[in-house]
Amino acid sequence: MGDTTERETGSRFMPKFDDKGLLTAVVVHHETRAVLMVGFMDQVALDATRETGLAHFHSRSRGKLWQKGETSGHVLRVQSILVDCDQDALVLSCIPAGPTCHTGVPSCFYRVLDDGALQPVKS
Q1: Long-range contacts of 34-40 (CB under 8 A, 24+ apart)
Q2: Can you tell me the distance from the alpha carbon of 100 to that of 37, in angstroms, rounded to the nearest whole number?
Q3: Residues 6, 11, 12, 13, CA torsion sign
Q4: Is 115 left (phi over 0), alpha (psi -120 to 50) or beta?
Q5: 110 φ, ψ to 5°?
Q6: 98 vs 19, 64, 78, CA distance in Å?
Q7: Looking at residue 108, what DSSP letter applies?
Q8: Measured between alpha carbons, how far is 76 from 55 in angstroms, rounded to an integer?
């Protein structure tokens, strides 16, 4: 089986990182399925996440590994990891230990684009 066929239809985990060594990771709430945040993972972050059960990401601005909640305590406990068809994006199903967004709200997606302006999402 070729790499493409194996990656797309096989059972072997073969993450496909981009030219910067990253892949996209979308975080959803394990119970509500609400989108909480989007981050980027390199191999180190992916390995740390799998080893600890806590979500780790690659900080593009700082150029280093960071564990979500390492300073706030608002960690993301990973329950499962979904892998897309060509293995270049992940969905982390997590239980958050507090707000996910650095602004203090549950989700980083708290605004909606409405007629060209950002409005708060109505619950």
Answers
A1: 34/106, 34/107, 35/107, 35/109, 36/76, 36/94, 36/96, 36/100, 36/101, 36/106, 36/107, 36/108, 36/109, 37/68, 37/100, 37/101, 37/107, 37/108, 37/109, 38/108, 39/68
A2: 7
A3: positive
A4: left
A5: -105, 5
A6: 33, 23, 14
A7: S
A8: 5
Do the Cβ atoms of 89 and 16 come closer than 8 Å? no
Q: Which two tokens stand for residue 82?
A: 């979904």
What pLDDT shows up at residue 1? 56
Tell me the per-residue pLDDT of 17-41, one tens digit each, with 9 for 90 and over.
Answer: 999 999 999 999 999 999 999 999 9
Domains of the chain (ranges; CATH) run: 22-120 (3.10.20.810)
- Displacement of CA 89 from its chain's centroid (Å): 9
This prediction has a pTM of 0.92
